Amino acid sequence: MDSPIYTVLLCRPSSNAPFHLQPIISPLLYLVQYAGTTPLSTLTPLPDPSQLPDSILNYRVQLNTQGVLSKQELSAIKQFRRAADYIAAAMIFLKDNALVERDITADDIKPRLLGHWGTCPGLVIVYAHINRLVRMTGIDALYVVGPGHGAPGILSCLWLEGSLANFYPKYSRDKEGLTALVKSFSSPGGFPSHVNAETPGSIHEGGELGYALSVSFGAVMDKPDLVCVCVVGDGEAETGPTATAWHGYKYIDPAESGAVLPIVHVNGFKISERTIYGTMDDKEITALFTGYGYQARIVEDLDNIDEDLAASMEWALGEIKKIQTAARSGKPIVKPRWPVLILRTPKGWSGPKELHGEYIEGSFRAHQVPLPEAKTDANERRMLQEWLTSYGPKELFSESGVPNDAILSLIPEQESKRLGMREEAYKAYTPLDVPDWRTFAVDKGTDQSCMKITGELLDAVVQQNPSSFRIFSPDELVSNKLDAVLRHSGRNFQWDIASRANGGRVIEILSEHTCQGMLQGYTLTGRTGLFPSYEAFLGIVHTMMVQYAKFVKTAHEVPWRQPMGSLNYVETSTWARQEHNGFSHQNPSFIGAVLNLKPASARVYLPPDANCFLSTMAHCLRAKNYVNLMVGSKQPTPVWLSPEEADKHCIAGASVWKFASTDEGMAPDVVLVGIGVEMTFEVIAAAALLRKTIPALRVRVVNVTDLMILGPFGSHPHALSDEDFDSLFTRDKPIVFNYHGYPVELKGLLFGRPNLSRMGIHGYMEEGTTTSPFMMMLMNETSRYHIAAEAVRSAALLNPRVEIDAHKTISTILHLAQKDKEYIHAHGADPAGTFDRPTFD
Ligand SMILES: Cc1ncc(C[n+]2csc(CCOP(=O)(O)OP(=O)(O)O)c2C)c(N)n1
Ligand SMILES: *[C@@H]1O[C@H](CO)[C@@H](O)[C@H](O)[C@H]1NC(C)=O
Ligand SMILES: *[C@@H]1O[C@H](CO)[C@@H](O)[C@H](O)[C@H]1NC(C)=O
Ligand SMILES: CC(=O)N[C@H]1CO[C@H](CO)[C@@H](O)[C@@H]1O
């Protein structure tokens, strides 16, 4: 052996390491033994990887591709591709003359040329070969398209297979329907430039790149017969979320779930630059995917690309079946190596070759519109004419525009097997069986962690829904105190022997992006999930959540798409209680992200105690089509409401808390409002303090659980009418809000309510460090002292009996705050009894 295999040495089991830390013996065993003969001293300098023998380092698969397709099959595939490429190109350019029955004139060309050509031929060839595989084997397949900007390539195939006509009769499979499709694409009333919820068969928009792979993994979970073919662009492959999503397989149990067949479409370019994958040689690519745990097959024989891809897809499906069969017969393969295809084809393949002396096909210039001046420039128009007629539309379509028999022979006969008609993508929602939350309710007057109690409910949800509910968590389940779910379930980590094959409902991967993508794929195919997270880090998936909400908004407007479950988030480990962590872990900004969504889909809840949290969770797990954000504490805090009271409170979204109010809140001088667990506690403590120090002040305490009630009437389905708002908050009395999030969000919501000048808002002020819980309140002026002082200050303006001593009272109260600060600095902890339940006697 000439060169040492340094990568392999790293895997060598060490006899001293505890068993669970040793890598699992795998196909690498052979290599390990081999490498074991290499003296360590030869490891530096590192050998040139190109010198390493392929067969040892790289799981690069070689296949005999000859004769895999019959003559008829090959001809059908080629004609399908020609037809689809033709239609895709026509969609970008033409508004009339869709079959190019006469010479293209300037009038035939759209006024604005919009669309992305470059990726289309690649998406089309994959489509054609999925069709072949479906026809041949009868598999259930979904197609998830990473480069969603290649919508013309997908829509053209959907038209050919009749799925468009099925959902949109105006796009009938004839000349009229084709003309309508071509004409309206990227124009008002037509399909937009990206795959979206209007596109039959889609569960992923692919506008914001990076998520196709994780969405695919989520989609196949608990659907053992589903194969999700996922094209990842080589540009998309450069994204962080895609990089981490390659590990998705490590969370797929082949016995209970289906499979993803990833195809990296290496067309070499992105918008205006080479791609990283496009510059990697075969060894680099196979070594990379070998490291991720795959066997890679490079598909690149351009002269025989259909044979190459057909053989490769058959091989890939065969590997998938091997892995699944082994697992389903109780003998799972240890660290199975799933297949991945690397498809190398030129960008804009079959399009114009050159313009003004520069390459188009096979370069970034093919990315969008390859002949941008076709309407005004006769030369470009002639090139367009040549390009489109080169596909031979007259052979492909009859005079009435119907695709020929060869093309139709490639389309799955059974409609429900066609990629555009898979039920998973549009009507698969099974509501969860959620137990009555009152069974888990806790006693009023005790102290409880919202998360611990909710964990008990989730444990029951897991048991009652063994294959339609999952939790996606970035390694925070235990830290967030939701681990009761692990009582009857486990973590579904296939590479850890202890976790394997136990039906674990919890996916813990420390990539918020992967958690989010999997949750999306799982939800959009009809199931329900939950994403609990540290409050500070949910913002990592902010734009993903927004993209998802756009997809759902559109889906909601598409008549043939049926409802789906909600996307459910729990935020805990909030800024207000940071025992171990500090400033970096204080960031309630995700609330604002959800508030910005369309009111029809946004729901933000800040339940004040464990019973309210239970009620909120039970509601959200059953609700459809929303993005639900639930914010709560994991630390024990008082249970203020009995189950019956919590139920009423949560239905109303807000209520007067009479026990903390003066005279049950009648005729108050000031209204104090808590929003969030700790904020509510401080408000109640402020009310108690005020009752002692200034009995003349009449206080009403209101608690708000559902943030959306605050917005002006009509702004959100939950928004209170002005009458209800007045009866809860009074018409003209000062209101002091103590809010868990950034004050500016609450300001935005309240804008439009009458008399804003009477409202004061306390909230997170971007102040913090690793400090005691009460110091966090003091630092951000959300403490009971700050709330009480402001109550006195504002009420003094209206109530003369308060005004007399206002200055003295405020000084006394703020002095207490100062004394507590000094105490905390001196002792490193809050004064004893700070969080004892306030008393009102
Ligand atoms: C997150 C994100 N960043 C940037 C873009 C802008 N963008 C649109 S297409 C594209 C290139 C995509 O390259 P690739 O995935 O290889 O697709 P293809 O080249 O096949 O069109 C980029 C950067 C985007 N859509 N999403
Ligand atoms: C607005 O609120 C202030 C302070 O509570 C009050 O004095 C005033 O009368 C209110 N104005 C109206 C128009 O209600
Ligand atoms: C928040 O805390 C910091 C530090 O104690 C202080 O400087 C700041 O003024 C506080 N309050 C507000 C409203 O910013
Ligand atoms: C605990 C408590 O005070 N609950 C009250 C909340 O407010 C509603 C009316 O909005 C009352 O009915 C509850 O008694």
Automatic annotation (TrEMBL):
GO molecular function: aldehyde-lyase activity
Domain Xylulose 5-phosphate/Fructose 6-phosphate phosphoketolase N-terminal: 70-429
Span of domain Xylulose 5-phosphate/Fructose 6-phosphate phosphoketolase C-terminal: 634-836
Pfam family, one: XFP_N
CC cofactor: thiamine diphosphate
PROSITE patterns noted in UniProt: PHOSPHOKETOLASE_1 (PS60002), PHOSPHOKETOLASE_2 (PS60003)
Keywords on record: Lyase, Thiamine pyrophosphate
BP-aspect Gene Ontology terms: carbohydrate metabolic process
Family as reported in the entry's similarity comment: Belongs to the XFP family.
Protein name in UniProt: Phosphoketolase
Source organism (scientific name): Pycnoporus cinnabarinus
